[in-house]
Amino acid sequence: MKPGHGEVLLAEGDRRIAEDEERLIAAFRAQLDEGMWAAVPTTNGGSGRREAQMVKEYAQIPADAERVIFFPRASGG
Amino acid sequence: MLLALLVLAFIALVLAAPILVREARSWRERRAERSGAAASDPLDLEIYDPGRERRAEQRARELLRSCVNDEEWSMYRDLGFIRVAGRHARRKTDRGPGPAYAYLVYPHKPVVAYVPSSGQLLSEYCVEFPDMTGASGGRHRLPASDDVLAKWMALTSDEDRVIRRANMHLVGRQLDPARVRRDLWRLAEWERRRHRRGRIPQSSR
Questions:
Q1: Which end of chain A is more exposed for a tag (fewer CB within 10 A), N or C?
Q2: Do the chains contact at A71 and B167, CB–CB below 8 Å?
Q3: Could you say which of A35, A49, A74 has the minimum Cβ distance to residue B154?
Q4: Smallest CA–CA distance from A48 into chain B, residue
Q5: pLDDT tens digit at each of 205 positions of chain B
Q6: Rounded to two decimals, what is the model's pTM?
Q7: Same domain (yes/no): B90, B5
Q8: B73 with B103, same domain?
Q9: Do B91 and B130 belong together in one domain?
């Protein structure tokens, strides 16, 4: 999510392909270096409730995640 | 005499030629820099696109819809806010079927914590998602639906962190408590209608 623009596609690829994964890791790190938060929308296995999972490292991204959403970190308004 | 003057003028011209060429070149370069800067100025200024914000909001709504569940999406579409259940239970008596407290998430407004069982308003949390890039000088903000989604993701993934970062106030600092109570009433009515609609097909089977 980019202020003033909304959703912007940063990178896409197949994690199982090494080249794609390198690109995805680079994009992931670049966003975190810019101070963004990263979250993966998931479904709670127990309650079936939709929720988000915050990820701080690429390795924390669930294997079945279809996307990672980056958004500016929260601050007091 | 005339010939001598012409020869002298020619010699002076030849001697001055390198200086003239150098001056002409630097003048041309300065002119190119000036015109280049003038040409780049309009590009630096962001051209106003009246449809950009509308398109961004449309994309944001689609993104929000793809992340939250049907009930939450319908709530946002119909009422303009989303309810997010609080994760903590303070007492054993709070461990009922519903959450002990919940949040109302509005776009570009503080998050309001309240007690669903009583409707008691607890506090408002002012939270923003400022432009981190700094390219726009912090002028821009997220589209409304992205702001709601960011709050939803932050609250459902790491409630404590976002609440710690927010500025907490009693309800009434930015939001009118009467309006929030009215929203809670609208939410209750909306849920009643939704529940009734959900029951009609079942009873007609």
A1: C
A2: no
A3: A74
A4: B69
A5: 777 888 888 887 777 777 777 787 777 777 766 655 555 555 555 667 778 888 889 999 999 999 999 999 999 999 999 999 998 876 666 566 788 999 999 999 999 999 999 999 999 999 998 876 655 555 678 899 999 999 999 999 999 999 999 999 998 999 999 999 999 999 999 999 998 887 655 433 3
A6: 0.76
A7: no
A8: yes
A9: yes
If asked whether residues B153 and B72 sit together in one domain, one would say: yes
Residues B38 and B57 in one domain: no
For chain A, say whether B50 makes contact (Cβ under 8 Å): no
Q: Are B112 and B102 in contact (CB under 8 A)?
A: no
> B167, A73: Cβ pair inside 8 Å?
no
Taking CB atoms and an 8 Å limit, are B165 and A75 in contact across chains? yes
Are B35 and B66 within one domain? no
Interface contact flag, A76 B149, Cβ < 8 Å: no
Does B126 lie in the same domain as B60? yes
State the residue range of the domain holding B110: 52-204
Q: Any CB–CB contact under 8 A between A62 and chain B?
A: no
Nearest to A6 among B56, B68, B128 (CB): B56
What is the C-alpha separation between A25 and B64, in angstroms, rounded? 25
Asked if A41 and B66 come within 8 Å (Cβ–Cβ), the reply is yes
Under a CB-based contact definition with an 8 Å cutoff, are residues A69 and B140 in contact? no
